[in-house]
Amino acid sequence: MATYGADLQGLNQIYKDVLGRDVGKVGLDFYGKQLMEGKSLDRIKAEIADSEEANRYRQAQVAPAPVAPAPAAPTQFDKSAEWLQGAVNQFTESADYSPQQVVGVNYTPAQLSQQNLAPYMNPYTQEVIDRSLADLERARLSATNNLGFSASQAGAFGGSRHGVAEGLTNEGYATQAGNLAANLRNQGFGIAQNAALSDVNAQNTALQYGAGQNMLAQQLNQNAGLQAANLGMGAGTGMINASNAGFDQANTVNNQMLTMGNLQQQMNQLALNNAMGQYNAWAGYPSYGQNLLTGSMPNAVGSTTIGTANAGLLPTIGWGLSQWG
Asked: Which DSSP letter does residue 119 get?
């Protein structure tokens, strides 16, 4: 019997280890009979461990993988603080803005004295001069011939008067030829100079226009930067206003919740006080009824008739019982 009792204790321990519970009547009857027939606890443990209940118990003992807690949803105060920080960053960025400096472009204007006039000279100027001098030479020769013919008619050809007249003719030719060549060259130079001066003026105009456009572009960039900085400041102001509104709204909600909490606390306290009063009243009824009974006993004892005593006591007991109910 001692061995069988030890086996039953071992069987119960197997149930605790494998199934997590004590052996029940069904298991005790089933496996107790097998123990009496000589079946070992090890074989019984192997059978129980291979059961569906044991599998469920083992699966239940596997600790589930820890689940990371869900991040707390941001409150209105968190959002307002985020907006406020964004406003601070926006103001800081706008305050660090340095406007672009508008700097005039220095340029060296073109000058006529620096220009090479050769490309502007008329290539036919010398040809015109040569032809004009040839025409003038023919006129001189014609005048000289006429002068010689007249001198021959007068019988003075080769004389001093003829020589003086011919010399004056040649002098006039040389003077006229020189003036003609000088005037033609001066005219060609003037035309070339005017053409070069026109190009110089056009070049200076282009340089001035480029410098003006450069300054205009710098001014536009400066204005755009200033406008962007002002917009940034305005955005920062808007974020501050939104943050303040968020804080106010959150404070309003908190105050409302606090008010509701206070009201609920007052209602709970009132209910507690009422319950306590009812309990105190209920707890005091037996002693109060006992006092009533005790107070009525002398009257009952002092009565000369039983009917009178019973009549005085029963109404009192009945009243006390009605108060207890």
From this structure: G
Q: Running DSSP on this structure, what letter comes out for residue 106? A: P
DSSP 151-174: HHHTT-TTSHHHHHHHHHHHHHHH
CA distances, 260 to each of 198, 293, 306 (Å): 91, 49, 64
Q: How confident is the model over 255-307, as pLDDT tens digits?
A: 998 899 899 889 878 876 775 666 455 545 455 445 544 554 444 444 444 44
Q: Is 222 exposed, middle or buried (0-12, 13-18, 19+ CB in 10 A)?
A: middle
Structure tokens at 198: 């026109």
Please name the amino acid found at residue 202.
Answer: A
Buried b (16+ CB within 10 A) or exposed e, 118-133: eebbeeebeebbeebb
Number of neighbours of residue 7 by Cβ within 10 angstroms: 19
Q: Where are the domains of the chain?
A: 2-61, 79-260, 264-324
Please give the Cα distance from 131 to 164 (Å, whole number): 28
pLDDT over threshold 50, residue 309: no
